[in-house]
Structures are given as structure tokens and as C-alpha cells.
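W.,

You were right to be curious about this one. When I first looked at the sequence I had no strong expectations either way, so I just let the prediction run and decided to look at it fresh. Below is the sequence, 458 residues in total, followed by the output.
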Amino acid sequence: MKIPTAACARLPVDVGAFQTTVFDAYDGKEHVALTMGELADGPPALVRIHSECFTGDVLGSHRCDCGEQLAESMRRIAREGRGAVLYLRQEGRGIGLAEKLRAYQLQDLGFDTVDANIELGHAADARDYGVAASILRDLGVHALQLMTNNPAKVAALTRLGIEVVARVPLVIPPRPENREYLNAKARRMGHLLDSPDVAETKAQIVVPAAKVPSDRSEPLFDLLSRVSARRDRPFVTLSYAQSLDGSSAALGNRPLAISGGASRCFTHRLRAAHDAILVGIGTILADDPRLTVREAHGVDPQPVIVDSRLRFPLDARLLTHPTRKVWIATTPLANPSRMRRLESLGAELLVVPVDTMERVDLSALLALLRARGVRNLMIEGGGRVLTQVVDQRLFDLLVLTVAPMMVGGTPAFAPHQSLRNREHTRIDRPNYLQVGDDLVIWGAPQVPGATGEGARDA
């Protein structure tokens, strides 16, 4: 969608002369593009997508690094003689100036920048980059080098059809007044800050040691911080909990708290290490989960629900998720009026081709999630989804929590097609971790046809 321009003018500043264009965007705000040189031709240009920060950009506040990032990005573009700064009018990560100042008050009381926004009833990050993608296309920019420390911004532009050929770090040395703010952005929001003062928090998720022993679990989380998406789908972690007798729920699929408190914290930490979390509609109907990371520090993953016939309840708690819009994967067989109703309640519907049993084709869904920028995906259940994922070998890592209890309830898995074919899925060199009273077993599935100790034991 082309965005009309309201005004254009040459703007000479200390570092050089920029062409300034004000856009009348569909969100009712006046967004600004500062451009230098010819952008439509030549190699991908340097681009900074900068969200308005009155306190930092105008007043020079030391509580953040925004003003310095803006100035540095303009200096770099001037040195290149070519590039653009998009100045988006979404103050305070989208909550507005007054609410940002209220968040500052909470930060002075001990809240970090993420929890302060959430305490005020806002998302941790409410920014929308759709208008940025539209402006870039209007400027003839379809591929760029993005100056940012925020991988989520790269993923957002990619989902919107803008090719990010390189992420160019824009790290500003911390000040005493903003060191905790920068640490929180790295720890809670995944910002990549390579400055020595904050490097120790890069891509980490900190959980109180009293809840999750870090000495034994760190290899798992270190692995997850280094995984890369496949070409055809995200890196997939299969994670679920069961009792000693293999039950995941009480009889009749009634909810049952299998994991202990420490294991729940561990699972929430695991969720925070993934871009998205996927469950089947049966889990929603049985448990009505929020799929957040409320018992650990970190960013909520994107919730994805597999619902072939669109049975998603209109009062499900996921429709009021505190930070994300739920994605519901369904099929062309779903009721169109039901789809419209769920969209009106805030859900985003992903229509996916059907498999041979007229269910959501999981391979097609994973490919779609990869195209939307999901780098790694955690699948928590339920039984039918778990079974399909294992039967089709669509996972790269298993994290199984076993609770020391006998339930006699609903099995975690439906009957396996692979078992009927006498093919077994074995975990190669499994790791064992005690979390509270529960046992966590994790490892990668053995490649079919591979030889080794696991193969000899089979």
C-alpha cells in the first residue's frame, strides 16, 4: 500500500544534507524519512528504523541510548553518502510519552523496562513495523543493511517482505544511568549488545538459581542460543511432560498438574529461549493456557495453535495475551464466519493446506512459520500434534520432563504410524537433568540409518 507524502524539503544538519519527507500514514501519524543519495539503485543501502524518543532524541536523556543511536546512524549514512533513517512516531516502544514517563517512575521503584510496561497494562514492545515496510517500498528499497541491535526488528521486516542482507550493530557505550536499561533489553528482549559492559547479558535469560539450577541446565540453553533455522523450517524443540506411566493428563483429557514448581520454571525458561510456541487445539480446550513465560525472565514466544476445524473458543485466554496476537493455523475447510469472528477478536488466521487426513499439514505450517521469521520453535503438545511431529521426524531436539507419579490417565502420544512400521525414534546420547523432584531428559533424535552406540542398543 502506497503511503501519501505530506511534504518534502532539503534539511542540512551537522553531518550533511538530508532529503526530509513526511508521510501521512494509515495509522494517523506523521512518520519521517531522512534520505541521502539514490536508494533504489545500487547495493543495499544503510537504513536505520528509529522509533521516536522525545526524552532521548530531543532532551538528550541518559536513561536510554536512543538519541545517541539516532545521531550515530546519521553520521554513518553521511560517511557513506547514501542511506535512510525512518523516524517512526511510536514513542516508548509504542505506548506514548505519558505512559513512558509512568514506566520511568516504576523503573525508579525497581521494575525493569519490560516489567514496567507490562505493569501498566501494555505489551513489552507494542511497535508496528508495517508502516516502515510500506515507506521503504515507496522509496524503492526492497533490500537493505539494517542498523540495529534488535533481532526482532530484522524478523519483523523479513516477515513484511523486506530483505535484510546484513544486521549492522549500533552499540552505544553504556552510561551509569542506562546500564540496567541496556542489560534488561539484552536479557529480556534479546538485543545483541556487544559492548564489554553488557556483553555478559547477550542472549541470556536469567532465572533465579533457587528455582532452576543453572550449573546443569546451561549446556541446553547454550545450545538453544546457537541453533540456526533450517532452510525449509525452524529448528524445532519437542517439549512435553508425562508421568512415570506415560500419562500427560487425567482420564478424559482432564487437566492435571504433572510438573512440579521447579520444572514449570524450567519450562517457562525454555519457552523464552524460542521465537514461537506451538500447541494443538486439544491443549487449548483442556487447559486454556496463556503460553507466557510468567515464571521466568524473558520475552513471551509467539503462540501458534494448530486447529484444523477451528474449534478455538471465543473466550480463550490467548485472545487477551499480554504481549502477542495469537496465530491460529487452520485449513480451507474451516468455517469462514468462524474465521472472521476470531479475527475480529484479535486472532491472526493462517490458512494451511491439508494433509491426507484433512488436518493441518504440519510440514507446510512449519515452512510458513520459517517464512515469517520464526528461527526456532517449541512444540508442547498435545498428543496428536506430538505424534505427527515424531512420525514425520519434524523435530531437532527433545526435552522430556518425567514426574515421579503414577496417573493411569491419557497417554502423551497417540498410536504411532512409525511404530506400526517397526521404526523407532531414538535419542542420540541423551542428557539427564534433575529439576526439583522431576527428571528432564534431553537430546537430539538419531539420524535414520546412523550407526553407533544408540543403534547397537536398538
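Here's what jumped out at me. The chain has 16 helices and 18 strands. And, maybe more interesting for your project: The longest strand covers residues 5-13.

Coffee later to discuss?

I.
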